[in-house]
Amino acid sequence: MRYVAVSALSHPGLLRERNEDSLVAGPWTLCATVTESPQTLVFPIGTPLVVAVADGLGGHPGGDLASALVARRIASAGPTLGSEDTLRAALNACNRAVYTAAGGEEETELAAMGTTVAGIVVQPGSLLVFNVGDSRVYAASRDGLRQVSVDDSPPLEPGQHTTSIVTQCLGGSPSYRAVHPHVTTESLSPGARYLICTDGLTDPLPADVLDDVMREHDDGRAAFELWKAAIAAGGPDNITLAVVRVADE
Length: 249
What we know:
By secondary structure, this protein is of the alpha+beta class. The protein has one domain (2-248): 4-Layer Sandwich (Phosphatase 2c, domain 1). Helix content is 24%, strand content 33%. The protein has helices at residues 63-77, 84-101, 199-202, 207-216, 219-232, and strands at 2-11, 21-25, 28-31, 39-44, 49-56, 114-123, 126-132, 136-141, 144-147, 170-171, 182-187, 193-197, 239-248. The radius of gyration is 17 Å and the shape is globular. The protein starts with a strand and ends with a strand.
């Protein structure tokens, strides 16, 4: 029987007072919490299985509420997200839900709260990759790490490998703005590995470091070593990540 192993952790980093990230693994969510060792869950492949991260917007009130709202909605809808169209519809519904929870047209203390989201939906024979914002999904193989999500960020300046500016997110605006989720379909094969993470991992660590860790370690150890490397690099932001592996029993 083919199964999916998910090794995940979420941590506030060294400079933030609280964790505004959330994580989804099937029906399980981890919202605004602290873990320093990976939690590993195993799921059979059958109905659509969602693994995702959500990163509440820094500098905006309610980032933790926005990321938790999106994580819980996606976890609840997960088994129904078997096509690109249903996934796009769910992400658009999340965008509307964040905007409504922030007060809609009313001026509230939560106005402009927002979150990014990125993840995968695993099902027999195929995999959906999705994101809104700059949280990322990478495919890991012998050929190296390949980013399969699309950053919603302005073009990088020479010498930059990342930026904290996002050009779209879920919520994040005093007035409602539609989003255009990135959703693609990939084939699925035994042994496939994926890294799903917020920018608390990718801002301090260049892609070659991520690639080295994924090559050198198995799932749970890779998740721990990636977190440790981000902390050693200053831990400037919340760090949430999941290492996902597809395997045959």
